[in-house]
Design a protein that fits this description.
Strands 3-2-5 form a three-stranded antiparallel sheet, covered by helices on one side. A two-stranded antiparallel sheet has the order 1-4. It has two domains: 2-38; 63-145, TolA/TonB C-terminal domain (2-Layer Sandwich), CATH 3.30.2420. The chain is rod-shaped, with a radius of gyration of 34 Å. The protein is of the alpha+beta class. Strand 2 and strand 3 (100-107) form a beta hairpin. It is built from five helices and five strands; from the N terminus they run H-H-H-E-H-E-E-H-E-E. Helices cover 34% and strands 19% of the residues. It has helices spanning 2-20, 27-38, 55-58, 77-81, 112-123, and strands at 67-69, 87-94, 100-107, 126-127, 138-145. The longest helix is centred in the first third of the chain and has 19 residues, at 2-20.
Length: 151
């Protein structure tokens, strides 16, 4: 009974719309319109994209980059004597240019001003760019810096 009521309602709405547009119609036209309203659209087949064309899976993830401009640390002998352990830094790099856009201390040296000077030195340093990388591609790399204590 509910389905019949929906059919009559749809038919009535079609008659009103067609009447407002000034369209003349035959009963067969109305029946054909009703059939199209009741027909379910065909579902597009889902394609399996988890294999060959997956750009993330096929993207080369292991690159070896070297310093284009090495960081220079301006530390005095007195400051170096306070140095306790190596500093582990996480750098965010713009792949196309090799610019270090952000650097964070993961494991500090035990002396805050030495960590700050390493971060400051990385602001002027640069890694080798990755060839053919898009301008928007960034990557993160962790690097451990070990400083030599004076004798």
């Amino acid at each position: 009974m509910k389905n019949n009521m929906e059919l009559y309602l749809k038919k009535y709405i079609l008659i009103i719309i067609m009447g407002l547009q000034g369209t003349c119609f035959a009963e067969s036209d109305l029946d054909e319109l009703m059939k199209t309203l009741q027909t379910q659209p065909a579902k597009a087949p889902m394609e399996n994209t988890t294999g060959k064309n997956d750009p993330v899976k096929n993207y080369k993830k292991d690159y070896v980059v070297d310093w284009a401009i090495k960081p220079s640390f301006d530390l005095t002998d007195v400051e170096l004597r306070q140095y306790k352990r190596s500093v582990k830094i996480k750098m965010t790099v713009l792949a196309a240019s090799g610019l270090i856009i952000k650097s964070d201390v993961i494991q500090g040296s035990g002396v805050k001003f030495i960590d700050a000077k390493i971060i400051q030195a990385l602001a002027s340093a640069k890694l080798q760019p990755i060839p053919y990388a898009d301008q928007t591609v960034i990557y993160e790399v962790e690097h451990e810096f070990s400083l030599k204590k004076p004798l």
